[in-house]
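Researcher: Go.
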Amino acid sequence: MTCGTPYTMKGLVTRRMGGAKRNPSLPVQRFITLRMKHTMTNYRRNRLPGGTYFFTVAIAERHLDILAQHIQHLKTALRDEHQRAPFVNLALVVLPDHLHAIWRLPHEDSDYSNRWRRIKAGFSRALHFGERVSTSRITKGERGIWQRRFWEHTVRDEQDLQHHLDYIHFNPVKHNLVSRVSDWPHSTFHEYVRRGLYPPDWGGCDDILDKDYGE
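Model: Structure:
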């Protein structure tokens, strides 16, 4: 499989990311390595105002199909939060038990944690089934749908962005939900195809799964 796409990400990144100077003509290249490898329990949040971030957000019961089954509730929660506290959603894929997203936050804004907290709460309020809830969650008045924590990675530059875009859009194939990237409906891949940033038959690349994405 060919790594990356034959296109550039010109116009997609419009400000500095992680201190890297913008270069809109940079061709899509292989991303070599990620220097941030932490577990979900000891991960220290990086907060860069106006930064671009990759997220992995998962439900507590990873064997259940909750997110894709209730995709409209999730879309509503995302839309409501976007109206409340705007952000640019550069990419999104929703799988049965987790999702990946790339956001760009407004200038002088680094508060992605409260955005995700409200999105999770809005989605949970829309569901009416009785999931398993731990004693500690009951004590705190929480439901048990989502994992409390999420994975965050600050995107450093356009190569880093391209690698995470590829990973997001290839994810349904990685998890054997479909055989082709284009067959999964809950993905921004289709929008990228319409914009000419991916060919319709794009199939990922050989080293796309070599990094740590918080799954």
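Model: The CA atoms of residues 182 and 200 lie 7 Å apart.
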